[in-house]
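So, could you explain the following?
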Amino acid sequence: MGIEFNADEMLRIAEQIERNGVAFYAAAAQAVSAPETVQLLNELSRWEHTHLEIFTAMQNALTDAERETETYDPEDELADYLQTTADSVVFIAGQPPLAALGEHPTLEGILQIALAREKDSIVFYTGMRGYVPSRLGKERIEQIIQEEMRHVAMLSTQLADLGR
């Protein structure tokens, strides 16, 4: 049997992913010089922050029953697992946001990493929406998935423009 998550735990993971995304895009915007790319990365950072606010509001609306878990966890290992999951899905926390790009990040490298991580977030949120009831904003998860798809399209366009 695998680890089971309640709505509260799923939303905590989502919140951390969004925090990590905000940090990545903010750092990336400072690492490039092309004005249109700086604008895009800053916009992506703002959108990730908006997603964080949505997930926080959803979490605040949870009932006590939705926060309960049937998993026996006297050592609070589930909390550690959740933190590790959140910090390793999509954007990696605990290291500089651009660490995966090396000492001298390139625009192409930033865009490729961002594109891959946005695709990973779509996969995560697609799975997550099955655990969020309609009354708690399942449609908001769907909206976030659609926004993440737009992020993929914008980043793909930027990458294609580099090759011209």
